[in-house]
Amino acid sequence: MTCPLCATANAPLTQTPVPGGPADASAEICVPCAEQTASDTPDPAHFRALASTMWSEDPAIQVLAARTLAKIPEPWARDLAEQLYLDDETRAWAENVPQPSAHRDSNGVPLVSGDTVVLIKDLTVKGAGFTAKRGTAVHRISLVADNPAHIEGRVEGQRIVILTEFVKKR
Fold first, then answer.
1. What domain range includes position 158?
2. Quick one: which of 116, 21, 100, 115 has its CA closest to 61?
């Protein structure tokens, strides 16, 4: 497969979340692109193909292209960023870069809304009459805004609050 962001042929692709937009938005890009787009200082040489790939019809690729161009301090990147046309909704998504969360899992990995976490110990759920077993995956978590030690998720059909010290990001 060819990476839709850097145009590298025969690259193994990985599903990469594109936060700040529609729920569960993601793009299938190569591993080096996934690492580079997450970096504050992406390698400009890796993204020379953005001149053609930024015109993708996939909004997630457009957002990744816009965000990556904004991080590259080269004149060619600024020129491309000025040329890039995005509809209003996609431009708002590209500019809505989520700030790093104070919510962290048991290993110190930052958590964001929509992540999947796994319980690292059995948890007795008060008021629900069941125990959430170690190894249970909790999909599409929500962050408790005023308490970075708490997240919310659905386990066995019940919406519960979970302490971040008892989960690890998957």
1. 117-169
2. 21
